[in-house]
Amino acid sequence: MAQPFLKKDDDRDDEEYSPFLGIEKGAVLQDARVFNDPQLDARRCSQVITKLLYLLNQGETFTKIEATEVFFSVTKLFQSKDIGLRRMVYLMIKELSPCADEVIIVTSSLMKDMNSRTDMYRANAIRVLCRITDGTLLTQIERYLKQAIVDKNPVVASAALVSGIHLLQTNPEIVKRWSNEVQEAVQSRAALVQFHALALLHQIRQNDRLAVSKLVTSLTKGTVRSPLAQCLLIRYTSQVIRESGVNTQSGDRPFYDYLEGCLRHKAEMVIFEAARAITELSGVTTRELTPAITVLQLFLSSSKPVLRFAAVRTLNKVAMSHPMAVTNCNIDMESLISDQNRSIATLAITTLLKTGNESSVDRLMKQITNFMSDIADEFKIVVVEAIRSLCLKFPLKYRSLMNFLSNILREEGGFEYKKAIVDSIVILIRDIPDAKESGLLHLCEFIEDCEFTYLSTQILHFLGNEGPKTSDPSKYIRYIYNRVILENATVRASAVSTLAKFGAMIDSLKPRIFILLRRCLFDNDDEVRDRATLYLNTLGGDGSVVETDKDVKEFLFGSLDIPLTNMETSLKNYIQNPSEEPFEINSVPREVKSQPLAEKKAPGKKPTGLGTPLTGPTPVGDTYERLLSSIPEFASFGKLFKSSGPVELTEAETEYAVNVIKHIFDRHVVFQYNCSNTIPEQLLENVFVIVDASEAEEFSEVGSKPLKTLPYDTPGQTFVAFEKPEGFPSVGKFSNVLRFAVKEVDPSTGEAEDDGVEDEYQLEDFEVVAADYMVKVGVSNFRNAWESMGPDFERIDEYGLGPRESLAESVNAVISLLGMQPCEGTEVVPSNSRSHSCLLSGVYIGNVKVLVRLSFGIDASKEVAMKLAVRSEDENVSDAIHVIVAGG
Amino acid sequence: MATFLSREVCPTIKNILLLDSEGKRVAVKYYSNDWPTNSAKLAFEKSVFTKTQKTNARTEEIAMLENNIIVYRFVQDLHFFVTGGDDENELILATVLHGFFDAVTLILRNNVEQREALENLDLILLCLDEIVDGGMILETDGSIIAGKAATNSNMDDGASLSEQTISQALATAREHLTRSLLS
């Protein structure tokens, strides 16, 4: 090859040689002038285009002017007959994605190419034209495209079909007219044409269930040549199966035979697609699963990593819902632990941990120990989490699992990894009483040599709560006091607190604890000294050993059940307005402000072993509360209990956009209507909402606050307040009309006319529902919270929910009906599962904590049954929850 | 960039990358809007490169990254990657990688290395254009892809594949194929 791109380049450094060395945008754009030469040099032009494409590919961008200039000069190249150059021109036009008025320039050239005798031109011209075209042009070329779809040249047909798939997004009504041609192309002998035609045909008909079902019925009987098309057909088939359900008489599933037949296809791609489809069937039976598992098992010992990965990943998913079905593969899976590809090894291990039985645990742990040293932290965390759930499954095996965890705790690792291990140990200590002593000692050893302040303090805190309850608490003192001697101030301070807890709980240790605490009085850090002084005083460190006061215990062990941000704002207010009164902690509002749903939560949120008891959504700031208390009419309503998210009362893009936020107080509700005016020529004055509460009998209107002016594009609020029975979750429906005076505005001067016209605007209705009286407040450890709430006010009942779309849909419906916070990720329903438990927590009006346990079951006819167990601090509230569910 | 096909039912390719031994771009093509800016793309390429760097991917390998599945293969100083969503059939992605790899091998006449690739960048870009169109798989057979890209290049002065080299190349491809079937 005759060094096509090498310019007069005297750089002889061969190591760094690149044909594009020192390339520069300005120079290349200069070079692009050759496109305008009357005598075109095709090769030179190709080279310049390649350079332009190289620049774009490296992330260089052209300004609008540069792009337009290049585009116009590139269009000149259609004069050249050179095939190679023409290909590069096509590529360049696609990369430049010209705007509509530029497209017109090339349309005729491309249309000429579309009808050329060279198939390559035709195929490419179709793809380029469809990429850059808009609806109007499309009607002109539609005729050619329809012909192209049934063209005997497969490249041309595929080009037209794939373009059709893209165009369906923007111009569905046009593409839908091509059905007949596409249908014909599905029968094509060319493998890929069949694939593309099938994809397009399905997309045209995807909203017509019957048509899709017919398509699947006819094709599953016929021959589909291309493996890719076969994969598509498998996907469509599972879709049809999903929608049709099991035949209740025979228990057979339609089309299952087809899927099973695909397991014997010659292409691995198809076999795998079918196996995966079978494992994902909803409510799949063991009999149906077996053949799929068998082929996946064969893949496990394939020489190709991709195949092993695909198989083990699918089996891993199956293991979540059908662990028994996967146990046959355990031997093959075990050999994958040493797989070169670490993703495969990790998937194999976590699958084994899910399917393993009690007797295989020890052997498994031995294999994993060798494996742990050479994988990355992210994989280790996955393994640690799998081991934790295994240990909870087989509590008798805690010894070897706990040993494993403590061993890996001693090894090198980053913060996230160590945190995962510590969290796991903490959970095991909590849930397996036998594991407590050894677990605590492992943690003690860990903090002897722990580089993470966060983990040290968390462990010390945990130790303070759990240590005094063990058989020999004194043995922990040494570890704790060592922290006071050796660590940084933060850890020292929390070690002091931990010592105090031991002192408070165990009288016999008191004298020795006092000695240690007194030493801390000479610490060089303020916080450490302050804490030592405080604890010495509260525990009666004047030498006399007395039983610790109940209040002191409450102070030391009780959790601060006030959101920290509320505490922070209250304290700030207190400092700003100095007063003689001491700060009163009871004046801090306790409610957690609900946050707009837009904020995404981390998917699959795990229960954190350590950490604060409250994990509700972080308050968005008390803007609403401040706003409402600044309005004199509403200031007497007391503490705001909850504010709902905005409910839209108008369609999008109407003249006036209004949404409402429901503010719930103990005896009142306030509706905050957020209005905005989207018409520049109008100024609205004296804006208010007339609320008809005839369908909300328990509510009576007590006041409103109109909005004086509502100029264009400046949102404003108007309020209406209602009274309702105290502490009672009244519900009702409200219909609304927006009233205002319109004044014309001269857009040029922005001045409004003097006289306005009264007008009104109908808004949509909204309801106050039971969930509005519930604040979402999460708990980190549901089980503990449930136990400590006790069964005094427990109410259990069963409900039939009737036929539902799916289990997940029923779970979500109940959660949103109750408006409670799902805990420990239990709102996620694994696909295929037939039963599900969901844990919810919240605070009901009147500041009553409520915990709910939901158990769902679904049968073959999609009838859903639900058991609802409620525990709360008030039996009326427990009953009220049942009323909500019964009424929903 | 084309509008990304967000239809789970159809196999979809998110991007195809050809990087050098330092993780720099030789040629890349993105079909999805998951990485809207050039810096997002570069960051993705960097993380893919670092994650796979240490593996010996003389045959097709596979990894997961940020909810994407990446199949890859390295030859000399060239790193080939194909990315799809995490619910994509891994074997379909591998087929696309296979097609891309074979096509590039044919175009570079078995001389698969960075310098050769840059010298034939026009053909490699044409290859990418022939494999996937806006995320939709167009063709997966390496020799057909290479054939399409090469018929368009300048044949007259032997600057690229001559007839003879094509048949040679096809023979090599056949040989490759037999070997991979036997293995």
TrEMBL record, chain A:
Query: Which coarse location class applies to the principal site listed for this UniProt protein?
Result: cytoplasm
One of its Pfam families is Adaptin_N
**SUPFAM superfamilies xrefs:** ARM repeat, Clathrin adaptor appendage domain, Subdomain of clathrin and coatomer appendage domain
- Per the database record, which ranges form the Clathrin/coatomer adaptor adaptin-like N-terminal domain? 26-539
Q: Which InterPro entries match?
A: ARM-like, ARM-type_fold, Clathrin/coatomer_adapt-like_N, Clathrin_app_Ig-like_sf, Coatomer/calthrin_app_sub_C, Coatomer_g_Cpla, Coatomer_gsu, Coatomer_gsu_app_Ig-like_dom
Q: Where in the cell is it found?
A: Cytoplasm; Golgi apparatus membrane; Cytoplasmic vesicle, COPI-coated vesicle membrane
User: Which GO cellular component terms are attached?
Assistant: COPI vesicle coat; endoplasmic reticulum; endoplasmic reticulum-Golgi intermediate compartment; Golgi membrane
The protein's UniProt keywords, in alphabetical order, are:
Cytoplasm, Cytoplasmic vesicle, ER-Golgi transport, Golgi apparatus, Membrane, Protein transport, Repeat, Transport
UniProt-annotated stretches for the region Disordered: 585-619
| Domain annotation Coatomer subunit gamma C-terminal: ranges | 771-883
**Task of the protein:** The coatomer is a cytosolic protein complex that binds to dilysine motifs and reversibly associates with Golgi non-clathrin-coated vesicles, which further mediate biosynthetic protein transport from the ER, via the Golgi up to the trans Golgi network. Coatomer complex is required for budding from Golgi membranes, and is essential for the retrograde Golgi-to-ER transport of dilysine-tagged proteins.
By sequence similarity, the record places it as follows: Belongs to the COPG family.
Q: Which proteins does it associate with, and in what oligomeric form?
A: Oligomeric complex that consists of at least the alpha, beta, beta', gamma, delta, epsilon and zeta subunits.
Which named protein is this? Coatomer subunit gamma
Source organism: Olea europaea subsp. europaea
Q: What is the lineage of its organism?
A: Eukaryota, Viridiplantae, Streptophyta, Embryophyta, Tracheophyta
TrEMBL record, chain B:
Determine the domain of life of the protein's source. Eukaryota
**Membrane topology, from the record:** Peripheral membrane protein
Q: Where does this one sit in the cell?
A: Cytoplasm; Golgi apparatus membrane; Cytoplasmic vesicle, COPI-coated vesicle membrane
- Keyword Phosphoprotein included in the entry's annotation: no
Pfam families reported for this sequence: Clat_adaptor_s
Which segments constitute the AP complex mu/sigma subunit domain?
12-145
Keywords from the UniProt entry: Cytoplasm, Cytoplasmic vesicle, ER-Golgi transport, Golgi apparatus, Membrane, Protein transport, Transport
UniProt xrefs under SUPFAM superfamilies: SNARE-like
Which cellular component, as a GO term, is one annotated location? COPI vesicle coat
List the Gene3D superfamilies.
Answer: 3.30.450.60
**GO aspect biological process, one term:** intracellular protein transport
The record, for PANTHER family, names:
COATOMER SUBUNIT ZETA-3, ZETA-COAT PROTEIN
Question: What is the role of the protein in this entry?
Answer: The coatomer is a cytosolic protein complex that binds to dilysine motifs and reversibly associates with Golgi non-clathrin-coated vesicles, which further mediate biosynthetic protein transport from the ER, via the Golgi up to the trans Golgi network. Coatomer complex is required for budding from Golgi membranes, and is essential for the retrograde Golgi-to-ER transport of dilysine-tagged proteins. The zeta subunit may be involved in regulating the coat assembly and, hence, the rate of biosynthetic protein transport due to its association-dissociation properties with the coatomer complex.
Subunit structure, briefly?
A: Oligomeric complex that consists of at least the alpha, beta, beta', gamma, delta, epsilon and zeta subunits.
Family membership, please give it: Belongs to the adaptor complexes small subunit family.
Record's protein name: Coatomer subunit zeta
State the organism named in the record.
Olea europaea subsp. europaea
Q: What is the lineage of its organism?
A: Eukaryota, Viridiplantae, Streptophyta, Embryophyta, Tracheophyta
